[in-house]
Amino acid sequence: MLLKAAETIRAAIYVRISDDREGRGLGVQRQEEDCRELAVRLDWPVIDIYPDNDLSAYSGKPRPQYERMMADIAAGRINAIISWHNDRLHRSPLELEHFIALIEKHSVKVQTVRAGEIDMNTASGRMVARQHGVYARYESEHKSERIRRKIQQLVEDGDVSNGGPRPFGYTRIYAGDGPRRKILRDEINEAEAAIVRECAERVLSGESVRSVVADLNERGIRTSMDNPWSLQALRWLLRSGRIAGLREFHREVVGKANWPAIIDEDTHRRLRALLQSKGRHPGQGPRKYYLTGLVFCSCDERKPKAMRVSIGHGKPKYSCQPKVEGGCGGRVIDLTDLETFIRKWIIKRAGDTQTLRELAEREAASQDDTEGVLTAIQKDEARLQVLEAQLASDGDEDEDELIEVVAAVRKVRARLRRHRDNLARLAGATPLIGVDIADLTRRWDSPDGIGLDRKRALARLFIERVIIHPTNIRGRFDYKRVEIIPVL
């Protein structure tokens, strides 16, 4: 196919590689070198290069450079194309037909390094192009089948598949460099694994996934892709067999894997069962108050009656049950005032190491482990007092010294949180895991703080029930009428 004598060749080189494992563009670079050699032999001046690196023509994903080239053909900017092979241009018959129509309309010449000239302006040339297209499609589909079978084999063998983002809780060991380098194995990332175990414990203890997500984001903990946590992401993580050292295929556990487990299989089964059935019954409204179910009226000492939330004069109150249901029908207490009083009591208990010691003893935890953690907490608390006193003093410390003190305070506080988490685990006090006692008051009242489920879990950790007695005081909250019966 010849161009008009007066028309000058304006050639474009199109190069593409589907899988750039090295991430350095060497594949498209080699194609370009071969295409430039062909352009020299044809005496075609090259006016532009269109490289689509690490993009499949079979996947259907947009190819920005290919689309730019098509637009330039339609605009008359180029009238000749050089590619390494025609399968670099297309692997879809539908896309090929669109290409043929555009090439024929604008009388564009097409040359390839491996397949020679493809004359889209003759019936025989179009037939050859279509035959190449059918074969290229077959090769792509056949390759896809081989890849799926390889993935299935990896799953059956318990090996790590060579793709996807790094799973949270694990460190990936690679061979080679670049974004598509081969994955050798996954090893436990201890810092992230501790977060996984914490989340599992908190959800199994009754805290909502939404509350845990809010807490992770409040603490600045990110996913393996460096994104904030979402409800879906955390549910997916906690339901996965991977964190229990199990391999899955199509979301079903099919056996043990070759990577290490972060949680045991029993914990995994309980998490999976809980999260698969998680959710409220239709018509059941969300909880609004963290003390509901713990507040009782003292009107019947033999069988205290649970008080219910009611609204009086626009304010929520806890009210005793009506007389027809066995209650006194008259005793009430302001809900907001009661919650504030109980909150202060809970926070004081949560910061009391002796309380946690008693909880650990109740859980029959190792006495040596408990004492070791308590000793570490006492040392760090003493160290923190000294450092904070230095910050509060009006001494002559220079700026560098103050920066060092601030850094030391942060380090000691972080270490204290870890010690308290360990003590909470020994005590079976999972609602306290991940809680910064020093910041608990602010986070309790914050709209995006610890959440209702965590408040309920903390209340049930320390309180068996709250008994409301009668009072003669009117117009203000009488804390003496509130009897807290602790769990211990």
Describe the structure.
The protein is an alpha/beta fold and 488 residues long. It has 15 helices and 16 strands. The protein has a 5-stranded mixed sheet with strand order 2-1-3-4-5, with helices on both faces. A 4-stranded mixed sheet has the order 11-10-15-16. The radius of gyration is 34 Å and the shape is elongated. The termini are far apart.
**Major beta sheet summary:** 5 strands, mixed
Q: Which class best fits the helix and strand makeup?
A: alpha/beta
Q: In order across it, which strands form the biggest sheet?
A: 2-1-3-4-5
What is the gyration radius calculated from CA atoms? 34 Å
How many strand units?
A: 16
Q: Which consecutive residue ranges, at least 5 long each, have pLDDT under 50?
A: 20-25, 154-160, 278-286
Strand content: 15-25%
Helical fraction equals 40-55%
Please state the average pLDDT score.
78
Number of helices: 15
Given the C-alpha coordinates, what overall shape results? Answer: elongated
Tally the structural domains. Answer: 3
N→C terminal distance: 93 Å
